[in-house]
Amino acid sequence: MINKCLFPVAGYGTRFLPATKAMPKEMLPILNKPLVQYGVEEALEAGLTNIGFVTGRGKRAIEDHFDFNYELEHQIEGTGKERLLADIRNLIRHCTFSYTRQGAMRGLGHAIHSGYTLVGEEPFAVVLADDLCFGEKQGVLAQMVGVFKQFRCSVVAIEEVPEEDTDKYGIIAVDAITERIFRVTDMVEKPALDQAPSNLAIVGRYILTPDIFEILSTTEPDASGEVQITNALLAQARQGAVMAYKFRGKRFDCGSVPGFLEATNYCYERFGYE
Fold first, then answer.
1. Beta strands in 78-180 (DSSP E)
2. Which of 29, 44, 157, 184 lies 20 to 30 angstroms, CA to CA, from 131?
3. What is the average per-residue pLDDT within 26-31?
4. Residue extents of the structural domains in the chain
């Protein structure tokens, strides 16, 4: 029913300069594994095996990562280091990878719309790799797939954020259905504290129905020239329904240096490192 996952990875990662001058921010490692690999592993756990990347200039390392490196693998074959490739080999074995380029940096909505050729007329997930998520018992995407199967409409992942941080996120107003599932009634992109309808913030996990592409094609850019996915989702909510899901788990904002450090420490304590 749903087996496609889109990764918008065309951004410049300017908060990590100069490291990201020649290296995609999605390839920055948490311990010995790049951020984007954690996201693909989460997608595979949810049964999403058709992985699409919306890339840009300077992102070739992502494509190379999800491919065999015959010279390297020949050199370490039969050594103790070969086991370090087990996880990435598992992804290559079970997933297919497709790529398209976003011609200009015009916001997340534009990036998702650029992925239409990879997705087509099917429901699909979207993962923002710099939002690193660890679910309880099952991954965040797997939890969201369950919500999608129940309601058959778009689903966004949400979490409560400090009120002083509402201007960093898309903030929603909701009607509660259960303790963790809500129907979206309004959305505001990065509102000031006095204009925020709640402290429920959309984070980097979405499941979208294919009608979002038609909505995005008519969504006007904002004052900065970016097409915001929140505006398209609000139109979708008013035409039908969009559900918000307060996931069970933990999220790290690895698009910021403090969040990246926090994620690294958490993974070291949880997984260790040899």
1. 96-101, 124-127, 131-135, 154-160, 170-176
2. 184
3. 95
4. 4-271
Which whole number is the average pLDDT over 241-247? 96
What HEC string does 22-79 produce? CCCHHHCEECCEEHHHHHHHHHHHCCCCEEEEEECCCCHHHHHHCCCCHHHHHHHCCC
Give the separation between CA 269 and CA 274, rounded to whole angstroms: 12
The pairing of beta strand 4-8 with beta strand 29-30: unpaired
Q: Which two tokens stand for residue 241?
A: 């329904």
Question: Which architecture does CATH list for 4-271?
Answer: Alpha-Beta Complex (3.90)
Pairwise CA distance, residues 78 & 74, whole Å: 9
Q: Are 59 and 13 in contact (CB under 8 A)?
A: no
At 89-99, the pLDDT tens digits run 999 999 999 99
> Is 170 within 8 Å of 187 (Cβ atoms)?
yes
Alpha-carbon gap, residue 156 to 139, rounded angstroms: 14
The pairing of strands 181-189 and 50-55 is: unpaired
SS3 270: helix
Residue with tokens 């259905």: 177
